[in-house]
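Before the break, one more example. Copy the sequence into your notebook; we will annotate it together after we see the structure.
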Amino acid sequence: MPQDELRKYVEKKIKRNDQALRIRSKLLGLQGAKFLAGSPLLQNVKTLVLFDTGLGDKGTQVLVESKILKNLISLNLGGNNIGDEGAKKIAHSSNLTNLEALDLYRNQIGNAGASALANSNNLKNLKTLFLNFNSIDDIGAGRLVHSTHLIKLEKLELTENLLSVKGKEICVKFDFGQRFKKLHQSGRLHNLESFYMGDLGVEALLETLLLKSLSELNLKENNLTDRAVLALANSPHLTNLKSLNLAGNQITDQGATALAESKTFKNLKTLNLNDNSIGDEGAKILAATNHLSQLEKLTLEENQIGPIGAKALAESTSLQNLAHPIFGFH
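Here is what the structure looks like once it is written out:
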């Protein structure tokens, strides 16, 4: 795009709104980037979209090194053939310290670029980062998710990269973690009924380290399997729990065994295991546990427990403090 034509185009755009400039699918290249970087027309711009404009790494470097863009809050450089070097220039730019949203969709950024962004000292205000359709694998995803520099990051998009199942799980856990933090801030983290989190969600929940002060936790109807129960049972962060609701999940004898053998739930008073798939073996192990003797309420309605399991529970010498019927009746 010729410079004179670009200048007139920008002037027209800025005249309508001097805080936002959006240019899509127009070839700017390095020369166009130099014009924008040196133009006082952009000094009030807070939102800059340059999508599919042929910037490349060099154009990106020129752009982000411009002090005129210090007011930027949102920057979209999608579809610009930006590679790791361009990502590094973005990460190292001291002119982007106010940036809250960065969109690098459909570029050529790999692990090196992702690592540079994750380690940036200039992107501490970044809340959203879009890196869909790049070349980042599990290593790069892990560095972004576990970054100690992107302290305000709330949303990370890595769709259509080089992620394995494990890498995709890392991203899912990150998303869950952000949702849990918001619930914690609003005092609602204890009630996660029908949150549809699955086992990954429970693992993400435990990784947030937000559960230490909770006295009750409702995980009813969350598609949880024994994997989630094992994670809960082995967590050192649930020792203050007095009430745990695991009703309406897919817990079997293996999960019941994990609960019975866990030393985590030493303060638990109420345990709801209604509507699961626990059978006689699980019931017998729960009846024989030495770690849940403080329970005052244990409910096991709508499971697969027959007369043998029911008898073991009724004759348990460990569950002597139960003040409520296990199956809804005495």
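The beta strands are 20-24, 47-51, 74-76, 101-103, 128-130, 155-157, 216-218, 243-245, 270-272, 297-299. The chain has twelve helices and ten strands. Try to locate both features in your own notes.
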